[in-house]
Design a protein that fits this description.
Protein name: FYVE-type domain-containing protein
Order of helices and strands: HEEHHEEEEHHHHEEHEEEHHH
Structural class: alpha+beta
Strand content: 25-35%
Number of helices: 11
InterPro entries: SH3_domain_YSC84-like, Ysc84_actin-binding, Znf_FYVE, Znf_FYVE-rel, Znf_FYVE_PHD, Znf_RING/FYVE/PHD
Number of strands: 11
Keywords: Metal-binding, Zinc, Zinc-finger
Distance between the termini: 88 Å
Largest sheet: 5 strands, antiparallel
GO molecular function, one term: zinc ion binding
Shape: globular
Radius of gyration: 39 Å
Length: 468
């Protein structure tokens, strides 16, 4: 007597009779024997071939032969009409002719043993194929929960190890320095700690931090959650005062060290422009140009020199969608040269109007070039610069119109050339996603960050005056 868990194994082991196999429905209690004899099992499966399953000592009550599948109901006009009548009247009248009669007597046992006088279904009858979604163990969040509530570690001292704790390579001063993993506090070399991840709330850090390879793999599943709650983009803007009571509002610096600073500079530039346009409409950007804009690039650039001038500055670019809403901002840096009859130095707040989808795609390039000509006049705190330039990059090319308000002492007419690059590190520190590209930010589905609310308020104010 041997027990088998499946019919396939039973057949493969050769445990069969002359032409038949018998075993119970419960695999744990399945048994078989070969040859002729008395069979008292719950189920009997007949193998192909003609064989007499009964001998003189067996009776029909001792054996159960699996019932034949019910015959398919005959499809005729009467059955179809009866079904339609049953559907319309909401009754089962007439269905008796369509369904075969079920035998009331069956030797199949669906009930299990009684427990405390109460009958229950056999375990093989109702076995769920998957755990319910409401159960705690349906989707295991234990690991993620532990990560989200993790406490900052105590960093190991540099003297505790002379080799990397992952690759065991010895540390050197120049080629293999020590780096602490911000999540576990252990010491690794640069090659084993290249990843940057957002850390849980208890670390009180909004910027992606250096972590080791093992911690990087552990933190990846919760990065999307942390990006929406911990990143700099998800924080409310702290600096939103742009009048004369705040020193930040007096003068925009040409270099912004963070996206938050770039947002403040851009909002301040737009606010100042709206004030100038309200006082002197002749010096504002034509309404037709602004209405047809597909996007805006807003920069603060320092320019100095004589005959040959040098330019450097940072800013951001936003895309205007077809429904009139604005995309998330992307940080950019501009550096260039100018040649012509010019002398002096000035600080310029640029508003570059992007016309056409192709021009916006130009700013999605990692780097693009611009070439144009302009007239610049600045005397004291107020000046004007009007330029038209052509920009080209690996993603596209297009024509842009530039308006700026400048401060300083400068005069001249020049031919301008510059290189504009996307500040990927600034975007990473702001959004917290190392895989996010400029096209994802401007042309994708990235939601408008909460930290950029002052910028969107200034843009809405600019276009509300235009009636669009």
């Amino acid at each position: 007597m041997s027990s088998y868990s499946s019919l396939a194994r039973l057949v493969s082991q050769g445990c069969y009779g002359d032409n038949f196999i018998a075993f119970q429905s419960d695999p744990a209690q399945s048994s078989c024997s070969s040859g002729q004899g008395t069979w008292k099992q719950n189920h009997l499966y007949q193998l192909p071939g003609n064989s007499n399953l009964y001998d003189d000592s067996d009776t029909a009550e001792d054996l159960y032969i699996s019932p034949q599948p019910p015959a398919k109901p005959e499809v005729n006009l009467k059955n179809v009409l009866s079904g339609i009548v049953a559907i319309l009247t909401g009754s089962n009248k007439g269905l008796g002719t369509m369904l075969p009669e079920q035998e009331s007597d069956s030797t199949v046992e669906f009930l299990g043993p009684e427990v405390n006088g109460v009958s229950s279904l056999h375990s093989s009858v109702c076995a769920p194929s998957a755990p319910p979604l409401t159960e705690e163990d349906a989707i295991n969040y234990t690991v993620y929960r532990d990560l989200l509530v993790a406490d900052p570690p105590e960093w190991l001292p540099d003297s505790c190890t002379k080799v990397c704790m992952q690759c065991n390579s010895p540390f050197t001063a120049l080629t293999r320095g020590r780096h602490h993993c911000r999540f576990c506090g252990h010491i690794f070399c640069r090659a084993c700690s290249k990843g940057r991840c957002l850390l849980p709330a208890k670390f009180r850090l909004q910027d992606p931090q250096r972590v080791c390879d093992a911690c990087y793999d552990r933190l990846q599943p919760v990065q999307e959650t942390l990006k929406h709650f911990i990143s700099n983009a998800a924080q409310s803007a702290k600096h939103d005062v742009m009048d004369w009571t705040c020193t930040r509002g007096w003068l925009n610096l040409p270099i912004g060290l963070s996206m938050e600073h770039e947002i403040y500079k851009a909002a301040n530039t737009l606010t100042n422009y709206c004030q100038v346009a309200r006082l002197n409409p002749e010096k504002s950007i034509p309404q037709a140009v602004l209405k047809g804009a597909s996007g805006l690039a807003i920069l603060t650039v320092a320019k100095v020199g004589a005959l040959l001038t040098y330019k450097l500055g940072t800013g951001l670019v936003v895309y205007r969608r077809s429904d009139g809403s604005w995309s998330a901002p992307s940080a950019i840096l501009s550096a260039g040269l100018g040649w012509g009859a010019q002398i002096g130095g000035e600080l310029m707040d640029f508003i570059i109007v992007l016309h056409g989808y192709e021009t916006v795609k130009t700013f999605c390039s990692r780097m693009h070039f611009s070439l144009g000509a302009g007239l610049s006049v600045a005397a004291g705190p107020v000046g004007r610069v009007f330029e038209a330039d052509f920009r080209s990059g690996d993603r596209g090319s297009g024509l842009c119109y530039t308006y700026s308000c400048s401060k300083g002492a400068f005069i001249g007419v020049s031919l301008e050339g510059s290189i504009v690059t996307t500040r990927m590190d600034t975007n990473l520190m702001f959004y917290g996603d190392p895989y996010m590209t400029t096209a994802d930010i401007l042309l994708g589905t990235v939601q408008r960050p909460i930290a950029a609310q002052p910028l969107y308020s200034a843009l809405d104010n600019l276009y509300s005056n235009l009636g669009c």
